[in-house]
Sequence to fold (477 residues):
Amino acid sequence: MEQDAPLRGNVPEYSVSEISFALKQTVEQSFDNVRVKGEVSGCKRHSSGHLYFALKDSEAVLDAVCWRGSAGRLQIQPEDGMEVVASGRLTTYPGRSKYQMVVERLELAGQGALLKLLEDRKKKLAAEGLFDPSRKKKIPFLPEVIGVVTSPTGAVIRDILHRLKDRFPRHVLLWPVAVQGDGAAEQVAAAIDGFNALPKGGRVPRPDLLIVARGGGSLEDLWAFNEEIVVRAAAASHIPLISAVGHETDTTLIDYASDLRAPTPTGAAEMAVPVRAELLLKVREHDGRMLAAMQRLVGERRTRLDGLARGLGDPRRRLEELGQRLDDWSERLPKALLNLARHRAAALAQIAARLGPAWQLRRTAEAHRIERDRLRLDQTAKRLESIWPRLIGDRQTRLAQMAALLESYSYQQVLARGFALVRDKSGQAVMTGAQAKGGDHWSVQFADAAIAVTVDGTPPPRKEPPKKDDSRQGSLL
Fold:
């Protein structure tokens, strides 16, 4: 009996690819828009810009991916341990037989998570010194130009302009930005940096003061002013900055980094400028006080001057007395001068009388000494006249002897005695035989003439000593 063939049921047969794509289609159609709450785990950013992480709770784990385009628009950046609500869709990855969530939006799960993130960020930035009071700059008393960073369509800018107009009108520059939602933090930071980048004296005036303002709202609405990029831009601003975000009870991180915090945008305008009417009133008050003080000072000086005048008496009487004294002295002066001249003449005569004999004696002694010196000089001159010819003759005889001695030492006298002077072709004297080289042309100077010679280079033959005469010895042969 033949073996029966295996029975086949009516269950369809799929390939791996077919079943994988069927599952992918089913999952994507059933979960094309979902919101999942969970804790972020294993978050990492790929070099391509995509974000990969997992959402987990106490019983399950869901892989998630956020593509680069959506990652740049996220209001918050995911961090490990952060509890979030992710919005997106579910899909499968056939290449690894897994399912995952494609995240398009990300928000913190509840007020508590937001406050925890805010507190952690505040501690981090405070540790970097961004909130240090020593970094804060003084707000100018009366700025010429005020830069405002806020929404151009909200009530905030109108309140600020209205308040400035009431207190002290100033030139206001508005940098329009979004104050909440995607990209709001980047716009606010760019506005602060843009105002600081304006050059002084340029076409657009550089503000002397910045106001970053926004109306009230929830913690989520004000979250853009808690972002690090905004806080760092406020801390790095070279222009003094007033933060006016939310109502009086609202606090954001930019408030800690700014140079001054205002409770409301209207309060920021009040802090930015003084009240013009109050300044005018204060100036008038100071003007009146200064005038009264000057009048009082002049009155005191006049009273004191009058008192001093009473103590001094009438100056005209003093002048009359001095004039009378001057007349008296002018009459006595010629007689006093004449008497003084007579006294001086008498004193001089007395001194001359005492000095007369001594002076004559001294003069006679000087004349005798001069005459004695003159006689001594004449005698010395006569002796020189007699000695001078004899001295000249002795010097001439000595000079002749020295000349004869020098002539006896001249080389011509040596040549006359039979010697010769040998010179080479350059005229230098040849001093040693080692200087002789065959073929050199020399000159031999004798007493009467010079003869040119050529050096042979060979030494002269040696002379043999004369042989002794042995004729007296007999021969043995």
Observations:
- The two ends are 168 Å apart (CA to CA).
- The mean pLDDT is 83.
- The CA atoms of residues 167 and 464 lie 143 Å apart.
- The first strand starts at residue 34 and ends at 45.
